[in-house]
């Protein structure tokens, strides 16, 4: 366990920079994604070791479908291979896996792989690893609005009674606490359609390092950055 006094319960990472990492080495973008999988393994180990309870990793956005078809297919294959191959090891580490994103685009094979890893790891109680795959925060909010509109139409709740709690409960993250700490690697400072509702009081950190180079040392350095933050939530903190 880490000796820092505050460890974020929920860390969310926008894993960015795989393509640039590959380019710097004269390799195909795909090789950057492959190297990115090692960084995922390392982040999971670091999260467990630090006592983080929730780790959300942004792996594929709905906007990423607009990339060249060969890259999209390579990412899909890599995702499936990883999801199939890592289940037992994650279960051994006490990691429960959840895949978050719309499943409508996926083939039945992909859906069954997702269901398999979620069930193999269902007992994990050290860390919940949430993989945001085919995820869009705006789409998530639109779907939540539809869910609530149906509940109103069916007379279950009144429109004027819809609260923040109702809205949160209608999101894909219904039973997941809001992220405390959002990290985006590669120096880009934007959310790119990630957890827009849930990020409302998160702390942010934008290290320059490219995702494949984000190892255990970088994870621990990020934990130290978080421990120095003052979270005020609009209040005045007495000295
Ligand atoms: C992040 O790395 C991985 C995905 C978006 C799937 P990128 O592929 O975006 O890498 P850069 O930003 O081009 O370097
Ligand atoms: C965000 O990265 C999505 C993921 C890391 C999965 P992108 O590289 O796709 O985002 P932009 O295009 O730079 O905003
Ligand atoms: Mg990118």
Largest sheet properties: 6 strands, parallel
In percent terms, what proportion of residues is strand? 5-15%
Number of separate structural domains: 1
Number of helices: 7
Mean pLDDT over the residues: 96
Span from first to last CA? 29 Å
The CATH topology is given as: Undecaprenyl pyrophosphate synthetase
- Radius of gyration from CA coordinates: 18 Å
Number of strands: 6
Ions, cofactors and other ligands present here are: 3-methylbut-3-enyl trihydrogen diphosphate, magnesium ion
Q: Tell me, what's the shape?
A: globular
Looking across the biggest beta sheet, what order are the strands in? 3-4-2-1-5-6
Indicate the structural class: alpha/beta
Order of helices and strands: EHHEHEHEHHEEH
CATH homologous superfamily descriptor: Decaprenyl diphosphate synthase-like
Helix percent band? 40-55%
Q: What is the CATH-assigned architecture?
A: 3-Layer(aba) Sandwich
Residue windows where pLDDT falls under 50 for at least 5 positions: none
CATH class: Alpha Beta
Model description:
- The protein is of the alpha/beta class and 239 residues long.
- It has a single domain (4-136, 179-226), classed as Decaprenyl diphosphate synthase-like (Undecaprenyl pyrophosphate synthetase), CATH 3.40.1180.10.
- It has seven helices and six strands, in the order βααβαβαβααββα.
- Strands 3-4-2-1-5-6 form a six-stranded parallel beta sheet, with helices on both faces.
- β3 (95-100), α4 (108-120) and β4 (127-135) form a beta-alpha-beta unit.
- α1 packs across α2 (29-50), α2 (29-50) packs parallel to α3 and α3 packs parallel to α4.
- The longest helix has 24 residues, at 69-92.
- Residues 15-20, 60, 64, 75, 186 line the site of one 3-methylbut-3-enyl trihydrogen diphosphate.
């Amino acid at each position: 366990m880490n000796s820092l006094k505050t460890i974020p319960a929920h860390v969310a990472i926008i894993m960015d920079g795989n393509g640039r990492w590959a380019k710097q080495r004269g390799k195909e973008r795909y090789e950057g994604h492959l190297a990115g999988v090692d960084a995922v393994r390392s982040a999971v180990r670091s999260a467990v070791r630090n006592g983080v309870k929730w780790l959300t990793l942004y792996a594929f956005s709905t906007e990423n479908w607009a990339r060249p078809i060969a890259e999209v297919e390579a990412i899909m294959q890599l995702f499936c291979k990883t999801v199939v191959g890592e289940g037992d090891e994650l279960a051994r580490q006490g990691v429960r896996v959840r895949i978050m994103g719309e499943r409508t685009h996926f083939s039945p094979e992909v859906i069954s792989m997702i269901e398999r890893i979620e069930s193999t790891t269902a007992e994990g109680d050290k860390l919940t690893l949430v993989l945001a795959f085919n995820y869009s925060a705006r789409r998530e909010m639109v779907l939540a609005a539809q869910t609530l509109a149906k509940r109103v139409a069916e007379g279950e709740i009144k429109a004027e009674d819809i609260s923040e709690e109702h809205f949160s409960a209608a999101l894909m993250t219904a039973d997941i606490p809001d992220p405390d700490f959002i990290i985006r690697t590669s120096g880009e400072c934007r959310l790119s359609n990630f957890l827009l509702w849930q990020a409302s009081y998160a702390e942010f950190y934008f290290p320059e390092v490219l995702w494949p180079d984000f190892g255990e040392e970088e994870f621990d350095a990020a934990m130290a950055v978080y421990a120095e933050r003052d979270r005020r939530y609009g209040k005045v903190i007495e000295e």
